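TA notes, week 10

Several of you asked for a full example with nothing omitted. So below is the full record: structure tokens for the whole chain, then the designed sequence directly under it. When grading your own attempts, check the secondary structure regions first.
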């Protein structure tokens, strides 16, 4: 498993309007190959939003970077300051703490 955390700020888009966009985009993310889960995150008080992505492996994450869905989010005019950090998962202790998701 591989984890990616993406953060950004909203620009000229309200929190309620952003949440509507998330509802519309969620089905598209549900069908992304190799994406085991996505947790949508928000901190309206600091204008920080994003997602925690649980990928099957690093290669799946990299393949997603070649998709139209990725480009549409990365180039969205209402998102600014986008950062992406990815991590290898230390599987032994993560398994003990029930942190591994079953691959589909």
């Amino acid at each position: 498993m591989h984890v990616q955390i993406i953060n950004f700020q909203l620009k000229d888009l309200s929190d309620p309007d952003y949440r509507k966009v998330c509802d519309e985009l969620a089905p598209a993310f549900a069908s992304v190959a190799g994406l085991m889960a996505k947790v949508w995150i928000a901190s309206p008080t600091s204008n920080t939003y994003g997602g925690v992505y649980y990928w099957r492996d690093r290669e799946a994450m990299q393949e997603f970077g070649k998709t139209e869905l990725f480009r549409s989010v990365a180039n969205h005019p209402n998102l600014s300051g986008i950062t992406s950090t990815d991590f290898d998962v230390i599987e032994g202790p993560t398994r003990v703490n029930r942190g591994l998701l079953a691959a589909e």
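The domain at 2-96 is CATH 3.30.70.100 (Alpha-Beta Plaits). Use that as a sanity check on your answer.
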